[in-house]
Amino acid sequence: MRPVSSEPTTPPPPATDPRPVASDEVRAEHSAHASPVRVGSRVVIIGGGPGGYEAALVARQLGAEVHVVERQGMGGSAVLTDVVPSKTLIATAEWLTVTEQAPELGIESAGADGEAGALHADMAVVDKRVVELARSQSADIRTRLEREGIAITAGTGRLDPELSAAGTRLVHVTTASGGESAIEADIILIATGATPRILPTAQPDGERILTWAQMYNLTDIPEHLVVVGSGVTGAEFAGAYNALGAEVTLVSSRDRVLPGEDEDAAELIEGVFRRRGMTVLSRSRAAAVRRAGDGVEVELTDGRVVEGSHCLVAVGGVPSTADMGLEEAGVSLTDAGHVVVDRVSRTSGYRIYAAGDCTGVLPLASVAAMQGRIAMWHALGDAVAPLDLSVVAANIFTAPEIATIGVSQRQIAAGEVDGAVTHLPIARNARAKMLGITEGFVKLFSDRATGVVIGGVIVAPRASELIYPITIAVAQRLTVDQVANVFTIYPSLTGSISEAARVLHHA
Fold it and tell me: Quick one: what percent of the chain has pLDDT higher than 90?
């Protein structure tokens, strides 16, 4: 059973409360903002991404009547234009990077005439598969929700500023055809996600200047892709298209790619990029991107101009919270437009919750899903533990991948945490040698006083899978000795996790 929340049942009211209250009865109920709303409650969820559809399943499980309003398709951008399609594309590119070790392993590829030939990607097939997988996943989600008795409406939602005498609120829905309807709700969840940030001097056209949501319009491998932005999205796409055979130039405004990640991991990935022929322009900032005939020109702030066939502008996202009537309904927003939430997903609006990228808490589908579940557990009176970001694992799908969990080495080096660090190159692992893996490492961090595992980093193929044992250790507060004393398969890559734990014995 989930532990009961230690959060107060009533959040402190804002200094100025713009929320309209219809009567003294509602005003009294408003003061018990999180009072449980039991079986039969009407829940309206605006947004059908991970935060929305996971919340819908929980709410239905707890006996609520649930209605999901989604304008794009079930799964939202995570399934249709972001996580699922991008990782499908990256999976194809990864197969091509695996062949780097083929000669060392004694593998040769033969062409039709019997001579050696190189593998290549057919982008028409790749893009078709990307789109079909995304649509299939979206359809599966919709089918699951409908099977559970959850109503779904295709459209956009806007909150009514007024509360009824019973404390309910209308959600006004506008369909793609312009139709209007209203749904009465006891509880509302905002899970509208985010859209690509658009720069005034780099307006996307969907053909040559693209956002991450438009990359699947391409049916051919770009001759020369210029990627503006070296964060997670930029690095993932740059690495993927480089592996697929495109010439790639990555424009990074910082000293290195992936500036927010573990320094050793980021340096390794940048080295891999350069070794594979990618041009990385560090400490370079794009001033403008424009069409130039059948290509693009990327003008840098120092006056240099980078010419390419296509440009991906990957400079973050913008929360999709505009024109929803949120502030009029008493929901506080940050200056950037993110919905302000606490650790159980409550907003400042009466019985209004929020989850996912629209909150700006952490832009991960796993976090959005957990925020959505927590919101419904809390709103419907179930046992709930507040969101704990210290146990969230994250992964960057470059080749090799970068997976992280818990405390960072930067925090330890800065003296914020009294931790011990071990760093083991993956190349010394027996299984890695057999697979021809030469680049990557395992890091493990432990608390010096207790020996408890407090964090880790893995850079390796399938790091997203390998990080799970460390995630369990961090979440369950296992010591390095407990991790070290668990049997691992020999030979296996997970053997390096056990070895790292042994190194930290009495560290």
Answer: 83
204 and 274 together in one domain: yes
- Please report which confidence band the pLDDT of residue 101 belongs to, taking 50, 70 and 90 as the band edges: confident
Q: CA–CA separation, 165 vs 167, rounded Å?
A: 5
Residue 394, domain member (yes or no): no
Q: Tell me whether residue 449 is in a domain.
A: yes
Task: Give the N- to C-terminal CA distance of the chain in Å, as an integer.
Answer: 35
DSSP state of 115: S
Average pLDDT over residues 399-405: 97
Work out the burial of residue 72: count CB atoms within 10 Å of its CB; fewer than 13 is exposed, 13-18 middle, 19 or more buried: middle
pLDDT at 117: 55
Is the pTM here over 0.70, yes or no? yes
The count of domains in the chain is 4
Phi then psi for residue 323, to 5 deg, are 60, 35
For the record, the structure tokens of 408 come out as 């960072």
- Residue 298, Cβ density class (10 Å: 0-12 exposed, 13-18 middle, ≥19 buried): buried
- Identify the CATH number of the domain in which residue 203 sits: 3.50.50.60
Among the listed residues 442, 423, 439, the one whose alpha carbon sits nearest the alpha carbon of residue 493: 442
Render the burial of 430-444: b for 16+ CB within 10 Å, e for the rest: ebbeebebebbbbbb
- Do 408 and 488 share a domain, yes or no? yes
- Looking at residues 51-73, what average pLDDT do you find? 97
Q: For 213-219, what is the mean pLDDT?
A: 88
